[in-house]
Amino acid sequence: MAASPAAAAALLALVALAAAVGVVADGSDHRYKTGEPVPLYANKVGPFHNPSETYRYFDLPFCSPEKVKEKSEALGEVLNGDRLVDAPYKLDFRTEIESRPVCSKKLTTEDVAKFRNAVAKDYYFQMYYDDLPLWGFIGKVEKGGKAEPSEWKYYLYRHIIFDILYNNDRVIEINVHTDQSALVDLTEDKETNVEFLYSVKWKETLTPFEKRMEKYSSSSNLPHHLEVHWFSIINSCVTVLLLTGFLATILMRVLKNDFVKYAHDEEAADDQEESGWKYIHGDVFRFPKNKSLFSAALGTGTQLFALTTFIFLLALVGVFYPYNRGALFTALVVIYALTSGIAGYIATSFYCQLEGTNWVRNLLLTGCLFCGPLFLTFCFLNTVAIAYSATAALPFGTICVIVLIWTLVTFPLLVLGGIAGKNSKTEFQAPCRTTKYPREIPPLPWYRLTIPQMAMAGFLPFSAIYIELYYIFASVWGHRIYTIYSILFIVFIILLIVTAFITVALTYFQLAAEDHEWWWRSFLCGGSTGFFVYGYCLYYYYARSDMSGFMQTSFFFGYMACICYAFFLMLGMVGFRAALFFVRHIYKSIKCE
């Protein structure tokens, strides 16, 4: 019964993803004749060090047509902040152009101030030519060895040169650079006449069309980068193997001694007073407090684990090739919607096993446990983006589409999963009977309390992934490209193993101290890595990045809080499942009366 809604959701997710994300190879397969127009779209401009703070291309006073023609975009592209419009340059296939005027424009003092502010903040522009991305800076700052910004010189590039490589009738590569001699001085607030120019140069190449995207992924596949990645993997594996091996040896030896001792005690004297984890066998399977919240957290964690697994599967088969615009965001929205049935099924069936009665409230709690905080965070950050007039602000239509997906797909599947879970009629498998009244927990030293235990539990899994975290952060919150998903998948597997093992070890020591309230503790210890990752966010922001400004800071810490919360729920579920398996196993192995 447990497999059916999960399997159905999995099948639906893969089918929908094939349609929603698109093809695995490069989406544009156009062939062109000489002189035929090739589409060139201007996307966005923004400060180089603030990846979330981007604006529409024509928010700066470039040469713009009378009517700006916007390209229709997929859901993922809009979520990614892409706003593609027809660029003012005409780049026909294999047609060379030398210093052609785009327009002559009189820049007002406001225009000059706007461009100067953009140049001071290292603004870059991004365009797409035949679905190939290209970037360039809009100007430069000459400091002249002076410390005061008021004494610096600000220049705008007015001549852009496009270098395009082709193979027969296909575009293979495009690069852009600027004519350093064609500059406009923006230092003073005065009206300036500017003639914007562009040149196009074509060159033949032998690179096949199928390999044209390799240029963008090659940076992360350089021997130096691969060496660092593999070093981090080996470092993690060795650390994990040594520590888990050490813990496993101790745990197995202690458990073996426990089993021998308890078997001997049973043979010697049945009335002898019990001690250790056997002493609390009548309390260890006593259901936790706030069981509705516990079941909801377990269901949501399972859904997020399924979501992560599907994303890895798609990444490993090559769907998320570099600059497949919005594919990851589309995949996240669609898979999250389609896996909500898993959350409903797991939460409700477990809640019913814990003898819960109000399964409808439990189901609503499951639906809101992750979506609620995410929605509140989105509302605040979208308001900030609207105030900044940034492209990160989602249009009203896109918000309506997401709400419709939640209403017509996510919520119905959650309810169906909940109904299936309620009707599964499975009972909680406890090898020992639970006594009517709980035993009193003996006084415990400070290091056995919840927060110190969480700190111990989170450190080891975090140490296994922290090297790889830098590359992920540099990709998500920077301009690096991450394509080595196989290494990331290995790190993810190591993370799961270590989380499970450390939670089992801490659960054993907790039970040995005759503390039977292990349910919430195992979940919190498993998920505590999320707090360490958020701590790493603080380090990365202040020590490893040049991000600045209220909007970028809000986006970074707001969305990272949601991601770390998802980590907490997912790894908490893994920790609890491992601890539950372990506790059932050890209590099955002894004779409980």
TrEMBL record:
<feature type="transmembrane region" description="Helical">
    <location>
        <begin position="555"/>
        <end position="583"/>
    </location>
</feature>
<feature type="transmembrane region" description="Helical">
    <location>
        <begin position="394"/>
        <end position="416"/>
    </location>
</feature>
<feature type="transmembrane region" description="Helical">
    <location>
        <begin position="228"/>
        <end position="251"/>
    </location>
</feature>
<feature type="signal peptide">
    <location>
        <begin position="1"/>
        <end position="20"/>
    </location>
</feature>
<feature type="transmembrane region" description="Helical">
    <location>
        <begin position="523"/>
        <end position="543"/>
    </location>
</feature>
<dbReference type="GO" id="GO:0000139">
    <property type="term" value="C:Golgi membrane"/>
</dbReference>
<dbReference type="InterPro" id="IPR036259">
    <property type="entry name" value="MFS_trans_sf"/>
</dbReference>
<keyword id="KW-0967">Endosome</keyword>
<dbReference type="InterPro" id="IPR004240">
    <property type="entry name" value="EMP70"/>
</dbReference>
<keyword id="KW-0732">Signal</keyword>
<keyword id="KW-0812">Transmembrane</keyword>
<feature type="transmembrane region" description="Helical">
    <location>
        <begin position="327"/>
        <end position="351"/>
    </location>
</feature>
<feature type="transmembrane region" description="Helical">
    <location>
        <begin position="485"/>
        <end position="511"/>
    </location>
</feature>
<comment type="similarity">
    <text>Belongs to the nonaspanin (TM9SF) (TC 9.A.2) family.</text>
</comment>
<keyword id="KW-1133">Transmembrane helix</keyword>
<dbReference type="Pfam" id="PF02990">
    <property type="entry name" value="EMP70"/>
</dbReference>
<keyword id="KW-0472">Membrane</keyword>
<feature type="transmembrane region" description="Helical">
    <location>
        <begin position="363"/>
        <end position="388"/>
    </location>
</feature>
<feature type="transmembrane region" description="Helical">
    <location>
        <begin position="454"/>
        <end position="473"/>
    </location>
</feature>
<protein>
    <recommendedName>
        <fullName>Transmembrane 9 superfamily member</fullName>
    </recommendedName>
</protein>
<dbReference type="GO" id="GO:0010008">
    <property type="term" value="C:endosome membrane"/>
</dbReference>
<feature type="transmembrane region" description="Helical">
    <location>
        <begin position="296"/>
        <end position="321"/>
    </location>
</feature>
